[in-house]
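Let us practice reading a record.
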Amino acid sequence: MSYDGLASRMTEAGCPINASALYKIEKVDPPRRITVDELVALSRVFGIKLQALIQPPEEALNRELLKLMEQMAAAIDQTLMANTAFKQSLRNVTEFVITHPETVKQIDQLGGTSVSGLIETLRDVDDDEDHRLADRLERIAGVQHQEA
């Protein structure tokens, strides 16, 4: 936004100011001080809370970094919960097939995964119980494939 455009918007917000004053606030060293009325008008024009305008820029960066870190932590939590749900679903399907070995052929027909895919995924999980389930499923699948 140009200084003239900002000056016009500041006037509309109830605080007349000329473009050269805005330039001096932003560019001159030391910068021109602003009045409380100008601060309130800038807050309205830019849609920024007053407190955000009076804090040092480093604090705004820290708040943004904290917000991003919180979003990342939430995403990690969601990933861990989804992984836990996936492992439980994998175990549920495997235990069902172990309990009902006649369903081995149906897994391949239903799509989405295969018996060998289930076995491979169980072996990829770093858990002894999952490895035992993979061994049991492999034995059952081997028997089913021999009967076919």
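A brief commentary: Residues 74-147 form one domain.
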